[in-house]
Each structure stands twice: as structure tokens, then as C-alpha cells.
Amino acid sequence: MMCSLWRGFSLPLTTSLNRRFLKCCRQLSRSYNIESCIPEAVAFQGVSDHSGLYKFSVNESDRFWGAVARQRLSWISPFHTVQNCDFSQGKIKWFEGGKLNVSVNCLDRHVHTSPERVALIWERDEPGTEVKITYRQLLELTCRLGNLLKRQGVRRGDCVTIYMPPCPLAVASMLACARIGAAHNVVFAGFSSEALADRIRDAQSSTVITVNQGVRGGKVVDLKRTVDQAVQNCPSVQQVLVAMRTENTVAMTDRDVPLEEEMMKEDVVCEPVAMDSEDVLFLLYTSGSTGKPKGLVHTQAGYLLYTALTHRYVFNYHDRDVFGCVADIGWITGHSYIVYGPLCNGGTTVLFESTPVYPNPGRYWEMVERLGINQFYGAPTAIRLLLKYGDEWVQNYNRSSLKTLGSVGEPINTEAWEWYHRVVGDGRCPVVDTWWQTETGGICIAPRPSDPEAEIVPGMAMRPFYGIKPALLDTEVGEVLSSNDSTGALCISQAWPGMARTIHNHHQRFTETYFQPYPGYFFTGDGAYRSKEGYYQIVGRLDDVINVSGHRLGTAELEDVVVCTIIIMFSLKAVMVQEDVLAQQLREMVSRSIAKYACPDFIQVVRCLPKTRSGKIMRRVLRKVVERNTDELGDLSTLDDPDSVHEVIRGHQRLR
Ligand code: ATP
Ligand code: MG
């Protein structure tokens, strides 16, 4: 079904953007020198500019990745084979023979050179109460926790579930697992007890780490209580380590271990385990936007290298910069760009505990000023929300520290992109719309790195990262679309070190989902348009494409025009006009910007659209509502506000 939906889908999506092609975000080219930018390039003969380096990275993949892996990671013993991959079996192996420890790469080696450098800035819920943790302190926390986990019986190869908000002990818990050779399974601390129990059971964890309570947006959340409910249905769990985020005591059972108290009894030295490159580092469940979440498995060396390299070059991160990724550590964005990428690079990374509107909609920008954030990385859903509150909330604060602005998670519509660029970045910071997935481990398509003069087009991810070779495939006949100005299934045609290795306990689902739809390619599930210039633009998930009068419309396309979904359902910024007047305006806007046939038959205003906990619109649920298949809404465990679905259903029944 997915395939036929996409047949012949050639979309006029970028026409409105093309007209407004901005030649923005130029950097001075005077000092540009490929070797000062990526030192390994010295070894790559004939490479003198970005496009040469990109070509080298995909054509001479072994040489490229071999050199950067030797240069950027600290190995306990060297690898003998750069890659050993076979997409037909879903076999992905990198740096075989090599041994290393991820926590040593993220901590010890920086402690040797700059022990007092700040590793983490814990931006707590109340503004102005941030806590800074140096590399030396983070190593100590990690070692004590590693020793405690060992004392509690956690062994190499076990999987520890972490249910914590962003905080230093959460990062230390992840790194402690890595230090002793256990895998971690971080579950977003906003999930219900059932969703948590599902993930604990799937991972077969005997140990859970949590906090007594969380604090977010001025509200206290009883996280330990959620864990108590979850573990009732998880026979594998033998112990729950409880850290104290607030001073309130919570009921403790025989199974519970007071984390701070016990870890303070431990030694500050914990011998790192020599791990094979392909041992498991963590599992992480996807957002569940398209169906049942998948427990993707990432391994040690390749994942770490890929996150470090993308963090350095996509965001143009330099030593001593303060990197502000406001995602939650429970998502892949948090794993790769709060924890592993920045720490592997010896960077200073922000752990954001609050919300974009607490105590007011100026929170992000007040924080940027106070912490001197240089790179800010957020989600379109938050940008769209803040845009509604107006420019003043941004302009009240000094944002001169900002150098790069990033976006991730969903397509960023043009209005939000331009606001981000013009208002937040004062028109001077490159905006990098980064496309990637839990499966890809790190950013795969983004406007940077590139030649320093290269343009950035609003709302486009644009350019593949080093080593990434994207391909568009015709969804009907499965052939590669080689010309530009075409749209198809976004695939990647060769392996890269950051990609997921399997779905936990379901290798067959892994091969079926990612490698069988287009043999020889990794299939992303997303659709993309490649412009005349060769730039990529994500047009939405292939499942979300709508067939109207024989024409295929991507939801991103419609949303870019009206910021809503067909049968158009949307929520309003503010109630300013009558709904029927607005409906007429929308119809005119769609027919003008796309085509008459794209005009919606029904327009429904809703309080809020159903979204995942990570802020993505659950379009598959809207589709079921429209098809009147409300008995088959599918897995709703990752839904943020369950009432939103019932309201949409009721509203829709009234409409039709
Ligand atoms: P599930 O796989 O369970 O349905 P999910 O795909 O939402 O959940 P993630 O891995 O967190 O889980 O999200 C990756 C997806 O998010 C991508 O496949 C893509 O659809 C979307 N996405 C991420 N970044 C971008 C971006 N910059 N532009 C457009 N879409 C993006
Ligand atoms: Mg997905």
C-alpha cells in the first residue's frame, strides 16, 4: 500500500521555497582550509575542499572511517577491519577487533587534559539555579555509580533501565553502564507505567535507576510511584536505585536502594572494561509515531565516532563552546547530542530540565544569555509554539553568543524556519535542519558541513553528511531515481558507523523493515524530494502520503502552506477569526499554493492535535479517525495527551 501511494508522486513542494531561495548564512572564506577543519584530510590525497572530502568519504569509505576512527577515538587495542556489512542479512559491523571503553573516551581522556573544564550544565527547572559539573566530577560520579552497579550484581552484558529526567546522575548512570560493560535502556521520564513496563520487560532489566520525583514546568511529578507501578508487572526487576531530585521522602521497599547514600560508600576509581567495538552500548525505543515502538540497538565504537563527528561538523562546534540541545535524554537526540557526541568531543553540554514556556515563553533565550550558549538545538514543535507568543520574548534577551541554530524531529515549515533564522538568530546564524532517526544514530542530512560559502535553503535538510550516500527509489518499481528534481523513498545505499545494528530480540523485524523493501538499500520510511540543485528535502513519512484525485500529496507540503493536515485538522494560534471565514481562507490558500484538487472537503478545528511525547504529530491516528476506524487506533502508549484523540473523534463525528 505504501508503494502504490507514492507512484508518480512528483510534487511542486519547493516552488514556493525556491522563489524565496535565500542566499543566507555565508561565512567568511578567507581562513578556510580543509586540513585545519578536518585534520585527517592530510592523509586523503587530492582532497582540497568540502565536496572533495565528501566524495572521498563515500568512495573510499574504509580509508575515511578508518582514519577518523584512529584519530578521534582512544583505543585499548586497535581494530583490524574497518567495516563488514551486508545489507541483505542486516549485518552491520564496524571496527572489528578493536577494543575500547566509551566512558574513557567521554571522560578520562578529557580529565587528563582539562579536569576542571565544565562537562555538564544542569539547567534546572527554576531559572538561575543551574549546576555545573566538571569532567573530573563527572568521572567521579560515573565511577562511584559503576562500582555501585557492580556491587548490586550488574554484570557485563546486562541491560539497565534508566527512568530519569535530564540530570547529571542520569548521564553518570549511562556512562557507568558503559564503563562496566552493561547496556542501558533510557525510557523518557514522561511515559506511563505501562509504557515503562513494556520497555523494561522487552529489555529484561533486573535493575532500574530512577529519581524520587521529577520537577518540570514548576510541577512535581512522582516518578518513583510510576516505577513502583511498572515493576509490579516486571518479574525481571530485582532492584530500583532511587536518586533524590527533591527533598521529599517517598515510600521505599526492600527492592529500593537509596542511590546517593550507597554510591558515596563506593570508591572513586572504577576500572573500565575493554569492550569490543560491536558490543551493545544501549537500546532505545523509537517515538512510536508510526506504530509499535522498536527497540533499536546501538553499539560502541561506530556510534560514538559518528555522533562525535556529526556534533563537531554539523554544528561547527569548537573547543569551549557551550552546546545547548534542549531535547530530553530519553530520545535519541538526547543520547547523541546531549551525551555522547559532545562528551566525546570534550565539550560543555546543557541538560535542560524545564519546558520552553516556563516560567514564560522567554525561557530558552534567557537561558541562552545566562549560559552563553553557542549552538542551540531544538524541535520545530517548540519553535512553532514560541512563534505564537511574538518576537518580544526573544528580543528581550542577548543572543549574541549564538553561532548555529539546529532543528530536528519533524519537517520545519517555512514560517517557523524563517522566524528562527530572522528573529532568534538575528539573521546571522546558519540554521541547520537536521534529518535523522533513532535508527541512523546521528545526523545524516543537514546543510552543514559544506563549503563555507554554500547557501542554506529554508526548511531543507539539503546535504548528506560525510559517508552518507542517499538514494531516492521509485516506490512502485523499486528503481533508483537518478535524476534531480524527483521524489521517492529516501534510502541510504551504503553503511555508516552510526547505524543501528538490530531491533532488540527481533532481528527479522529489523531486516524486514529496513532492508527488504528495497534490496541493497537501507530504507528510512521517509519520502524525500531532491531539488534541481541536488538538495534533499524531507516530505514526510511515506505512510502519511495522501491520495487526492489520483495525485499524491505529502503532508509536509500541505503543512507548509497551512500548517495543518488534510482532512484539514488544526489547532489555532489564537481565536481571532470565525471558523467558517478561516476555512474559506484556507481553501483559497491551498488552491493557490498547491492546486485546486488539493482543496480540503472538511476543515476541523481542534484544541490540540494528538502528539507523541516527543512532540510529533501522530498522523496515523488522524488517518484512522478520518477512515472511521477508531477501533484500530493502534499503539497509543507514546501519546502525550489522550484526551486530544477523544476530542478529535467527537469533533470529527459532528463534522460528518
Ligand atoms: P517510530 O519509528 O516509532 O514511528 P519516530 O520515527 O517518530 O517513531 P524517531 O526515530 O525519534 O522516531 O524519529 C525519526 C523520524 O522523525 C524520521 O524518520 C522523520 O520522519 C522525522 N524527522 C526527524 N528529523 C527530521 C527533519 N529534520 N525533517 C523532517 N523529518 C524529520
Ligand atoms: Mg521512525
From TrEMBL:
Residues 575-616 form the AMP-binding enzyme C-terminal domain. GO terms for molecular function: acetate-CoA ligase activity; AMP binding; ATP binding; propionate-CoA ligase activity. CDD domains: ACS (cd05966). It catalyses: propanoate + ATP + CoA = propanoyl-CoA + AMP + diphosphate; acetate + ATP + CoA = acetyl-CoA + AMP + diphosphate. Keywords: ATP-binding, Ligase, Lipid metabolism, Nucleotide-binding. One of its GO terms (cellular component) is mitochondrion. Residues 53-106 form the Acetyl-coenzyme A synthetase N-terminal domain. PANTHER family: ACETYL-COENZYME A SYNTHETASE (PTHR24095:SF83). This is Acetyl-coenzyme A synthetase. The lineage of its organism: Eukaryota, Metazoa, Chordata, Craniata, Vertebrata.
